[in-house]
TrEMBL record, chain B:
<protein>
    <submittedName>
        <fullName>Superoxide dismutase, Ni</fullName>
    </submittedName>
</protein>
<dbReference type="Pfam" id="PF09055">
    <property type="entry name" value="Sod_Ni"/>
</dbReference>
<dbReference type="InterPro" id="IPR036502">
    <property type="entry name" value="NiSOD_sf"/>
</dbReference>
<dbReference type="GO" id="GO:0004784">
    <property type="term" value="F:superoxide dismutase activity"/>
</dbReference>
<dbReference type="GO" id="GO:0016151">
    <property type="term" value="F:nickel cation binding"/>
</dbReference>
<dbReference type="InterPro" id="IPR014123">
    <property type="entry name" value="Superoxide_dismutase_Ni-type"/>
</dbReference>
Length: 99, 172
């Protein structure tokens, strides 16, 4: 398993920072020895949808390794406001580079 | 440099998708933007075609100016042809349901034809393709409003393309 993985972004919820069609590199080892912090852009498993990854921003760190994640473009985003907190085991990595 | 390299890699080995999307069905769809974009494609095509040199051998300054104009007009033409495709894709993917396709069996061909015409309008300087593109988008607009039980009317626009646009009919 490669530590860095390429993805192409679909959707507009991370605009204007990351636009639809842009590529991103996700560092899957970013949280090996640390925990996600507020403002980190993270890749996570979509709650209740197998094999679907989401790209969101950490807005709040709760207790017990739980996180509130939201899109930057809040008017066009499905995120913790809809599906609630996510746990650290669902966060797969941190954005390393966009291109 | 890194970006170019990564994009090249992506073309050879396409990456998986990561979703930054909204799956709330907001229900806000409108073929208006596709029509306006198609008008722009016609206008840009006409503007490029109407460019003329002042003589058989225009001087270097004039050539530079003309090249710059053509570049700008072409960029806008292509951008708006792509916008037509984008808007129609949204209607096709998010709005039109199988029941609509059953009711309007030509819808599939209409969407497909629109995509082809938009591509031709991007690739070439084809006035006919640009006009056909608008007509095709107008037909999709008519079907769109029919699926909502709304009658439509074609109205003359004030755009320099001097063409019509399909809008919902005003009711008293």
């Amino acid at each position: 398993m490669l530590p860095i993985k390429r993805f192409v972004v679909k959707g507009h919820s991370m605009e204007p920072l990351i636009k639809e069609g842009q590529g991103v590199l996700i560092n899957r080892l970013a949280y090996l020895f640390s925990q996600p912090k507020v403002s980190d852009i993270v890749a996570l498993n979509a709650p209740n949808i197998p094999n679907k990854l989401l790209l969101k921003r950490v807005e709040k760190v709760l207790k017990n390794n739980k996180y509130i994640v939201v899109g930057i473009n809040k008017v066009d985003s499905t995120d913790s406001r809809k599906f609630g907190w996510v746990s650290s085991k669902d966060i797969l990595g941190k954005i390393w580079l966009k291109y | 440099m890194i970006s170019t390299f990564l994009r090249l890699i992506d073309r050879i080995f396409p990456p998986k998708s990561i979703y930054a999307h909204c799956d709330i069905p907001c229900g806000i769809y409108d073929p208006h933007l596709a029509q306006v974009a198609a008008h722009t494609v016609i206008r840009m095509t006409n503007m490029i075609k109407s460019l003329e040199a002042s003589s058989e051998n225009p001087d270097f300054e004039e050539r530079k100016k003309t090249i710059s104009q053509i570049s700008r007009l072409t960029a806008v033409k292509e951008e708006h042809a792509e916008l037509v495709k984008h808007e129609i894709r949204i209607l096709w993917g998010d709005y039109f349901k199988p029941v609509f396709v059953k009711e309007y069996p030509n819808l599939h061909e209409l969407v497909s034809e629109t995509m082809r015409l938009a591509s031709t309008s991007k690739q070439e300087l084809d006035e006919q393709a640009a006009n056909n593109l608008l007509e095709s988008v107008q037909k999709i607009a008519e079907v769109f409003w029919k699926t909502k039980g709304v009658d439509t009317v074609k109205v003359k626009t004030t755009y320099p393309s001097e063409k019509e646009i399909v809008v919902p009919k005003q009711t008293e």
